[in-house]
Specification:
about 400 residues; 11 helices; two-stranded antiparallel sheet; elongated; alpha+beta
Length: about 400
């Protein structure tokens, strides 16, 4: 039975918030909740906080995600929940299996973090500690599977985000409460022994929350300092053999990299949702307005103006997102670049970002089409006014001639 030397179990809850990051930030900073003899509250985390104690490996990410100076250049802001003195935020008992027996472990919430972005996608994450003296690979895998199914901290996640108007991805409603669905998994672990096949099996189980004797090779990659990556749309697992400095990096740099990829992926999904929700699908809103009725014509003009304004805002937001998030530039270091390439491949980032670029081009073409329509309609109105004025002048001339002849008789 393989013993775990070091393990980090984190769970990410993605959500959308309906206001700008500048409006959301003070609401988060004002949050306070009495809990026994302490008060829970959020506090800002800066790039300098992430750099403490070691040389930064991801200056690009830190500056882009949460710059300390020139803050408007950063795409997001990070927060952490102030921890009660000398104890966890929450604790509960949980049953996990080891072979034919079940072991009751104390599960405690040790850390809580929050990442808000300018694309209005956010991530709340929490880290769990297990009190069992001897943690084995089998126990951790079983625990992971059962925890994502039970999701015991869902109501607390909703409470920690209570200052924001939000929608969880995915979400569910229980007793008229909007709660998060299954969280995304993030696991970093080192084992005292194990073959490459065993490590791949574990990496697959910890990245997906389900165990199988035949893990999909498409989700796995080995050769990283004797370790193994496992990545899927459900999560990421970094498995190492023996004591490794990478397990500590997994709590900081590698986790930040994972958040960065989640931010990119979910922002693109949100752009798709915004397109469906905000942009009219009625073809008449993109055609010439020929209504003679003044009221109907005015209604169509207002609808088209609203559609064009939504398109222009979407184009600005998508263009900024693509400009600020270069998928080719994450780190100049080989290990981190290898992990970034692996995540990009398994999360299909190239495919989704290519789709976003196509959507951006389509939106720009529609704006160009509406501009041409407006120009043509303005030309039609000008020509109609000229025609009307010419006809009026001809009538006036006719009456003038008629009046002169009548007076002469």
């Amino acid at each position: 039975m393989k013993q775990i030397e070091n393990v980090c179990l984190r769970y990410c809850v993605p959500f959308l918030f309906r206001e700008s990051i500048d409006r959301a930030t003070p609401k988060i900073e004002r949050y306070e909740r009495p809990n026994g003899d302490c008060v829970w509250a959020w506090e800002r985390v800066t790039a300098e906080d992430w750099k403490k104690g070691e040389a930064p490996l991801f200056d690009f990410l830190l500056d882009n995600l949460m710059a300390d100076t020139g803050e408007r250049s950063a795409v997001g802001r990070c927060f952490s929940m102030k921890k009660p003195q000398g104890r966890p935020f929450l604790a509960t008992r949980f049953l996990a299996s080891q072979g034919d027996s079940e072991t009751e472990v104390t599960v405690s919430v040790e850390k809580i973090g929050l990442f808000l972005t300018r694309s209005r996608v956010g991530f709340l994450w929490y880290e769990l500690g297990l009190s069992e003296a001897e943690l084995t690979q089998e126990l951790v895998v079983d625990f992971q599977q059962k925890l994502v199914e039970a999701n015991p901290f869902a109501e607390w996640v909703a409470e920690w985000l209570s200052p924001l108007e939000k929608a969880f991805l995915p979400g569910r409603e229980i007793n008229e409460k909007l709660l998060p669905g299954r969280p995304l998994l993030y696991t970093v672990a080192s084992f005292d022994q194990g073959t490459e096949a065993q490590m791949k099996k574990t990496a697959f189980a910890l990245s997906t929350g389900r165990e199988t004797d035949k893990p999909s090779e498409a989700c796995l990659e080995g050769g990283f300092d004797g370790g193994c990556f496992g990545a899927s749309e459900e999560g990421l697992a970094l498995i190492f053999k023996g004591h490794s400095e990478n397990t500590e990096k997994g709590r900081r740099e590698f986790f930040l990299l994972y958040l960065y990829f989640l931010y990119r992926r979910y922002s693109i999904l949100f752009f798709a949702e915004r397109t469906n929700r905000e942009i009219s699908a009625a073809t008449e809103d993109y055609e010439r307005i020929k209504d003679k009725d003044a009221d109907k014509r005015e209604q169509r003009v207002r609808r088209r103006e609203k559609t064009k304004a939504s398109l222009e805002k979407l184009v600005v937001d998508m263009s900024l997102f693509l400009l600020k998030n270069d998928r080719l530039t994450v780190s100049f270091l080989e290990k981190e670049s290898a992990l970034a390439a692996f995540l990009s491949d398994k999360l299909r980032m190239q495919e989704t970002e290519a789709a976003l670029e196509e959507k951006l081009c389509a939106a720009e073409r529609l704006i160009g089409s509406l501009d041409r329509l407006e120009y043509q309609e303005e030309e039609d109105r000008r020509q109609e006014e000229e025609r009307t004025e010419k006809e009026r002048e001809e009538v006036d001339r006719a009456f003038s001639v008629f009046g002169w002849r009548k007076k002469k008789n």
